[in-house]
Amino acid sequence: MNSEAPEPDPAEYLGPTETGGAAARRYHARYGSVLPAIDLAAGNTAPRHHPGAPLVRLPFPPFASAPTAGPESLGRLLALLYGVTRIDWSLAGVAGNRPVPSGGGAYPGEVYLATAAGLHHYLPTTHALERLSGADLRPELTGCLAEPPSQQPELILLITARQDANLARYGPFGHRLQALDTGVLAGQALTLLDSAGAAPAAHTHFADQPLNRLLGLDPTAESVHVVVTSGSAADLAPTRAVLDRRSARSGFEPTAVPSAQLAELLDRAALPVPLDHPGGPGAHGAAAELYCVAGRVSGLDPGCHRRDPGSGELRLTAPGTTPRDLYPPGGPGELAGFEAACAVLVVGDYEQGYPLYGDRWYRMLNIRAGIVGQRVGLAAARAGLGAGLRCDFVTERTDAALGAPPGRTALLSVLVGRERGHGAPSDPLILVGGHP
Ligand SMILES: Cc1cc2nc3c(=O)[nH]c(=O)nc-3n(C[C@H](O)[C@H](O)[C@H](O)COP(=O)(O)O)c2cc1C
Fold it and tell me: Mind giving me the DSSP string for 192-233?
């Protein structure tokens, strides 16, 4: 960037004035990478709560008794979506942790749910609901969606982001991180509800003002990013992958992973995403594709490969690239990249949606990347592999190292490999068998 040029306003692309993608492009060029503006000493803000709202306690642990309808089945869903599901021990001490990852552990996302019983906000650490309204708001809420479902959903999850949650630490990059984080949450919701046979769908294209108003939100502080419409969650059962997923805190053993295991992981991550934007269900390749930078994958040449969305084959795009090349030299990403067997990248078709959706496309694309990134993490847990989502790559350099066509940009990386030893000590709080 020309040093004479004025600094772009980081929040411009989120503002009321539509620029057809110009503001989003400016933001991505200046703030799309986490580095160098990061202050690890800065804290994250506290989660949201609504003083004065009546509390509905949910049973914990959530799978201790036979399932019933109502708050209990919602409690099961919410615990596996965003509750405290495990205790982790590390050099820094002991902490209660969540089923989903979050950039820097900031957890900027908030979960609201609308049912026939009203509108509630979920408090993860107390595993309780705040009752915001007793009215059935589902018809008004679906009325705000660009592509409302054909039938009235039984359940609507509204995933918001707190604007200030991570900005002190990450600077303006925090806005992109919030979109990735809410995508991760949406990915977890889709996985859980799909396993319950509830046919969920995620919506990122909606009328912001009326939707935020229905939730009573001040959009300069907190706004809706994703809406998930769904059938009943009563048949939800936890899978082992959902209970086992966590970041590989002990690093990776520098050993090879078989290419067949990697191919299965990528196939799972590439399953159709029920989302309301381009290509429709089944065509996630249209907006985001998977690339894999192989370091130690037996049966696969080292280098960067693009997964063909049609055939599932991996096609070499950059023979020399190794996972460590994606991260700044001397940093933790480079070390982790050296150890990992491979890096899986979610690469977005950055230009595709601006003509259709304007600046909003940037947030939609990052949400999609979060959904796919969460699937990679779950697929790795299912395969018994360690994984860690990372966004500490420098976008421009990474895009060049991938050998991707112009207009494509790396949005999220996931390092995958065998976690060292038995991994960092972690104890589940939900003790059930679970399916694979
Ligand atoms: C969008 C996103 C980006 C992340 N980026 C990084 C990163 O750059 N470096 C890192 O060490 N961890 C990164 N993480 C992992 C988080 O630090 C981790 O999820 C969080 O500390 C919670 O731990 P858990 O995943 O074990 O539950 C990222 C996670 C998400 C969702």
Answer: HHHHTT---EEE--B-HHHHHHHTT--TTTEEEEEEEEES--
For residue 391, give both structure tokens. 């966004």
Q: How far is the CA of 414 from the centre of ligand 1 (A)?
A: 10
Q: Ligand 1 centre from 228 Cα, in Å?
A: 23
Q: Which of 89, 102, 392 to mutate to test the pocket of ligand 1 (most atoms within 8 A of CB)?
A: 102
Mean pLDDT value across the chain: 92
Q: Are 146 and 32 in contact (CB under 8 A)?
A: no
Dist CA 130 CA 363 (whole Å): 28
Residue 197 CA to residue 188 CA, distance in Å, equals 14
Q: Which tens digit of pLDDT belongs to each residue from 270-289?
A: 999 999 976 433 344 468 99
Select from 309, 302, 263 the least CA-distant residue to 287.
Answer: 309
Structural element, H or E, at residue 412: strand 408-419
CA 377 to ligand 1: nearest atom: 25
Q: Report CA-CA distances (Å) from 213 to 140, 210, 222, 384.
A: 11, 5, 11, 44
SS3 state of residue 137: coil
Compute the distance from residue 248 Cα to the ligand 1 centre, in Å.
Answer: 10
pLDDT tens string 362-374: 999 999 999 999 9
Contact 269, 262 (CB under 8 A): no
The structural domains of the chain, ordered by start, are 55-240 (3.40.109.10), 251-419 (3.40.109.10)
Residues 272 and 199: their CA atoms lie apart, in Å, by: 13
Q: Which of 247, 244, 248 is nearest to 430 (CA)?
A: 244
Q: What does the pLDDT read at residue 353?
A: 92
Q: Kind and range of the H or E element at 78?
A: helix 71-82
